[in-house]
Amino acid sequence: MSDILKKILAVKAQEVAAAQARTPLAAIRAEAEQAPPTRDFTAAIRSKIAAGLPAVIAEIKKASPSKGVLRADFNPAEIAASYAKHGAACLSVLTDEQFFQGSAAYLQQARAACSLPVLRKDFMVDEYQIYQARAMGADAILLIAAALSLAQMKAFESLAHGLGMSVLVEVHDGAELDMALQLETPLIGINNRNLRTFEVSLQNTLDLLPRIVSSPSSLVGEGRAEGGRIVVTESGIFKPEDVALMRAHDVHAFLVGEVFMRADDPGAELAKVFG
Questions:
Q1: CA–CA separation, 264 vs 81, rounded Å?
Q2: So what CATH class is 3-274?
Q3: Catalytic residue set
Q4: Span 250-261, average pLDDT
Q5: Nearest to 219 by CA among 174, 255, 249, 179
Q6: What is the pLDDT of residues 31-77, one digit of tens each?
Q7: Helix (H) or strand (E) holding 134
Q8: How many angstroms separate the CA atoms of 213 and 272, rounded?
Q9: Which of 251, 259, 267, 258 is nearest to 55 (CA)?
Q10: What is the mean pLDDT of residues 82-97?
Q11: 3-state helix, strand, coil in the chain (%, to 5)
């Protein structure tokens, strides 16, 4: 685990404790259970793939620890509407405040501006955050294998599914992937960013693919739209050639943020990169 990830997780534990002091677990659970119905995040991705299209999870992110502020002129509702207009399958919204300058309000604004399902992109370390995600309107959550044990991931996944949310599990290497393949979720995100060096290489997705294809519930051939695993390649997608490389290897789902956030019109950039 990288030093930055350790630091983030320590801050998360403090944030959860502070949030629970303000709103006890029973109260946030009640809010989650009374929230409006979820939009089907996994189905939105499958639908694009079934139609022969790339399934883009378009990210709304103001800043990152490694790159600083990506977009000073930041309007989550406008960005979400632009993404929806230009063919995104889903949205991913950063809610981490200290390291990514995100917020729950950004997720709510983005979701209200379109009909796309929305992933809460954050660092989940406690079941409290799962209820919190549903209470704020999230349709899916991210679980980062580098930050969690298999037992934690299984418990968080079960809770999320019980609340009607999809789960995207993110892995960086073979050991993390072996854990992720023991979960029920079909959504396997492969992060091409090395958490220790922060270098990015699309080869990471290509290197891990054979392990997924050989798993019992792999997403291969004609069944890819109906069931089985969906590989979501994350980080390092900047141009049409990157998309073509992935699709040539039967990877049709993408989580992309930085290149869109730096563009004048994020949705128009999505259309340009993904054709």
A1: 14
A2: alpha beta
A3: 59, 61, 121, 170, 191, 234-235
A4: 96
A5: 249
A6: 999 999 999 999 999 999 999 999 999 999 999 888 889 998 999 99
A7: helix 127-135
A8: 30
A9: 251
A10: 98
A11: 45, 15, 35
